[in-house]
Design goal:
Blueprint (H helix, E strand, L loop, with lengths): L2 H12 L20 H8 L6 H7 L5 H14 L3 H7 L5 H15 L5 H14 L3 H7 L5 H8 L3 H7 L5 H14 L3 H7 L5 H15 L5 H21 L15 H7 L5 H14 L3 H7 L5 H15 L5 H14 L3 H8 L12 H7 L5 H11 L3 H11 L4 H15 L5 H14 L3 H8 L10
């Protein structure tokens, strides 16, 4: 039996009844370890999820390589891939992500994380019990009350409700998307607020802001967002479906700012309680009137009146060529797009001698054999909504792995789409039994 098949047999045992480890005494309490000890122990630890799952013994190297290959090829998150193949349970993945957070925040050492992973893997304990058995009692209050999960931060900042968070987590599990992205898809939060929350979470974890300051910054960001939306005649209680172009993305597309400059402005804005636009103006990247027009263009993208690239071209005309707003928008709309007659990117590459057209076409043909690239193109163009794209990716994954036949996968997709069910619930509803994946 190979490594992958052997782990699958073992993981089936993991899903059984929780067992108390007999004759194992709890390790010394982690309170006795100094902060310097914690930092020294975790300083060189690779806390990427896949590596951590191997290090704490929940999967092996062969499984990680196999899952990473499938995850990259098909555009499905690594954790979701492992669950779909039956190599991890949802409970184990959730616990591993929490262990990852505890490590990043310096609340447990790497050696303690390995011990916790052993208890999760061998005895199917919940994370809280595994932490107690490993002597990491001091981490439990933080796990319960002070974790910097983005959903919890948004609830505490009164940006979303508990009900919206639970709905987003259900969607996250069903589609394998991040919780924040699911909140965006469900219209619970705007793209600008989600971007702010992600950056606030990062800054909080880095210790640049404490939790209270982070929540305050998010509440202030919400007030600014509501004020901006009210000037654009939007319903302040509901955000439009996700068709988004973030302000930073628009400025980068238009060549007005770099990714590094946008990241700096976001962090500076959070720490000084100022909107990103104000920081960008202070940095001298754009004047107030151009910022206002960039926000209007962003709104037109959200309302599906402009494509992101069209908005970027319009901003280029406004900022660099002095065009007025109406002229820039009309000249770049699909209905009368003057740029449509201009040179395409592929033609530019060929004409400039960077690449021959034959090589460009070959690269495009190769790219569009990738489910991940195709899914992004369909989602970006608006041909399919993101939820349907993710459902299709999951069904395709099962076919590629030999876990479902093509006919079965088509049935599952139709049921999941029409009845708004998760892939797992659709499979149960149809009474289909998944075939175990074989090693590559």
């Amino acid at each position: 039996m190979n490594n992958i098949e052997n782990h699958h047999v073992n993981s089936c045992c993991h899903a059984g009844i929780e067992r108390e480890p007999a004759g194992i005494a709890a390790a010394p309490l982690s309170e006795s370890a100094s902060q310097d000890d914690l930092q020294a122990d975790t300083a060189l630890v690779d806390t990427r999820l896949g590596r951590l799952l191997v290090d704490i013994g929940l999967i092996n190297e062969a499984l990680l390589d196999h899952a990473l290959e499938r995850s990259f090829e098909l555009g499905i998150p690594l954790g979701r891939t492992l669950i779909m193949c039956g190599w991890l349970t949802e409970r184990q993945l959730t616990a591993a992500v929490q262990v990852q957070s505890l490590l990043k925040e310096g609340l447990i050492t790497f050696s303690e994380a390995v011990r916790v992973g052993e208890l999760l893997s061998c005895y199917n304990l919940c994370l809280e019990k595994a932490l107690k058995k490993s002597g990491c009692v001091s981490a439990i209050p933080y796990l319960q009350e002070s974790a910097t999960r983005i959903g919890d931060l948004l609830v505490e900042a009164e940006i979303i409700t508990e009900e919206q968070l639970n709905e987003a987590r259900d969607m996250s599990f069903a589609l394998g998307l991040p919780t924040g992205r699911c909140l965006l898809l469900g219209g619970a939060i705007s793209s600008s607020l989600l971007e702010t929350a992600i950056n606030a979470q990062k800054i909080c974890r880095e210790g640049k802001l404490d939790r209270v300051e982070t929540i305050k910054a998010l509440k202030n960001a919400k007030r600014r967002d509501e004020k901006r939306r009210s000037t654009l005649n939007h319903d302040a209680n509901r955000y439009p479906p996700a068709r988004n172009l973030r302000l930073g993305e628009l400025l980068v597309l238009a060549g007005i700012a770099t990714d590094v400059q946008i990241q700096y402005a976001l962090e500076a804005g959070l720490m000084s309680d100022r909107p990103i636009g104000e920081v960008l103006i202070e940095m001298g990247l754009l004047p107030q009137d151009v910022l206002h027009k960039a926000l209007l263009l962003q709104n037109l993208v959200m309302q599906a009146e402009l494509e992101p690239v069209e908005a970027a071209y319009a901003l280029i005309d406004i900022h660099f060529h002095g065009s007025n707003f109406q002229e820039a928008v009309l000249s770049n709309k699909r209905s009368g797009n003057a740029r449509g007659a201009r040179i395409e990117f592929t033609e530019f590459l060929s004409a400039s001698g960077i690449l021959p057209m034959s090589q460009i076409k070959g690269a495009l043909e190769t790219a569009f054999k990738s489910p991940y690239i195709v899914s992004k193109a369909l989602s970006f163009s608006g041909a399919m909504d993101e939820a349907s794209v993710q459902t299709a990716l999951c069904c395709h994954f099962y076919v590629r792995e030999g876990m479902l036949s093509l006919d079965q996968a088509m049935l599952v997709f139709n049921v999941a789409s029409k009845a708004a069910l998760s892939i797992e619930d659709s499979i149960k509803h149809l009474g289909i039994k998944l075939r175990l994946p074989e090693a590559a």
